[in-house]
């Protein structure tokens, strides 16, 4: 499974939405499902999928699917 | 009263919203304007609650003019809000766009009723807890005497004011002439952490889930020089987290209070001021209140370490429940509140919650009534049952219902506004029954544990 697919899957599970509705532009608070409660579940899901431990600033900054990719880049997860 | 204050506080800062600061005198001016707009005669006001100056001022205007205010969290979606309006026929709806007069008919309202709060904010159930000014005042005082709230304090809101614990933070700080930073950002937003430092916040409150987030975000490694104390209520926080927070408080010379309450008691009943020694205790009843334990026959238990149903007595016990505007005409308040929790006490009189008899769960601090879930299932034509552990909902659906379980889960998720990871649906042959013909929940739980391994 590509990293991109893994990430999309993590968003679908973490936010409880269909895989089809996950896209790079999807942003925090833009859909009712992505609220602060779901955000922590999403973070746990992403950490599990990629076996990383995000630090405080990254958890707070992870405000879109696009942004998640650039943050994970710092943890040596590549999306190219 | 906490909603009308002495003139020597006139120059104290009462509320802060972003860069806007209002002193107690300025807040009162705003309250006067809203009182004028709402008019004479007792009005029923549905307030769509934000943590902002307008919501605080409308709330206070209602209290000062003896109107009745129904507090509705702003996150409640439009169809659910419309249902509440149908049930309560408010004279006014106040939302972020202003005050909207609905009708001038005078409802029959018990002279004591002042505030209506939901026990399960996110489901939009019409069931409300009716509270009097005496209830609110007693609880504001009880809390203010149990916590070290000082006039020079500034607290930050982390919970909705439509939620009893959130509202009690507002009331107890107004009672003391302290300042309230009205915040709507989640504890995991940058804005929240910046506000803590920028405004030199001296206290905050949180439910178990807020603290799980705060700990995950490294709260215990922060140096928050201005923070004096913090409180936790709204459900049982896991012992390991209570200990981490108590250690953090000790190491940095702060105080940590664990509290116990219910909306039916206008928010809070007990405070544990020593969580470092007794992380699983709820402490002692707040000033003005008292606990007792009763056995299955309803007799009071006098021995220590014997489990019984926890009963609370105090001036903050609600007037009663309401399901619609008709119920607001008259209340016959009970003298005590049967909490639905099981508890025991130790030799020093501290109380410990040991279980729950009442049928509800509390995922992310939101109370969800399992009986309401079963009623909802029935309305959907589903033969099933609902139970759960503290923060997960377990639903059993009879195969004869011929249902697509994923569909049901989606609907349930919307209805309850609950994350799907907290809903588990199981297909069962039939609803297990006890010999007396009642739903056998333990048997269902047994079944689930076998299936889930």
Structure in words:
Chain A is mainly alpha-helical and 80 residues long. Chain A has a single domain (3-74), classed as ACP-like (Non-ribosomal Peptide Synthetase Peptidyl Carrier Protein, Chain A, Orthogonal Bundle), CATH 1.10.1200. Chain A contains four helices and no strands. Chain A has helices at residues 3-15, 36-50, 56-61, 65-74. Chain A is globular, with a radius of gyration of 11 Å. In chain A, 29% of the residues are buried. The mean pLDDT of chain A is 92. In chain B, the strands form four sheets. Chain B has a 13-stranded mixed β-sheet, sandwiched between helices. Chain B has a seven-stranded mixed β-sheet with strand order 6-5-3-4-7-8-18, with helices on both faces. In chain B, strands 23-24-25 form a three-stranded mixed β-sheet, sandwiched between helices. The radius of gyration of chain B is 22 Å and the shape is globular. Chain B folds into two domains: 7-356, 3-Layer(aba) Sandwich (Rossmann fold), CATH 3.40.50.12780; 360-452, GMP Synthetase, Chain A, domain 3 (2-Layer Sandwich), CATH 3.30.300. In chain B, 29% of the residues lie in helices and 28% in strands. By secondary structure, chain B is an alpha/beta fold. Chain B has helices at 24-38, 53-64, 78-88, 133-146, 164-176, 190-198, 208-216, 239-251, 370-379, 405-416, 441-452; strands at 13-17, 20-23, 44-49, 68-73, 92-95, 98-101, 113-118, 128-132, 154-156, 179-181, 203-206, 229-232, 255-262, 267-272, 281-285, 290-294, 308-313, 320-322, 337-345, 351-356, 360-361, 368-369, 384-389, 392-398, 423-428. At the A-B interface, helix 2 and helix 3 of A face helix 7 of B.
Short description:
Chain A has 80 residues and is mostly helical. Chain A has helices at residues 3-15, 36-50, 56-61, 65-74. Chain A has one domain (3-74): Non-ribosomal Peptide Synthetase Peptidyl Carrier Protein, Chain A (Orthogonal Bundle), CATH 1.10.1200.10.
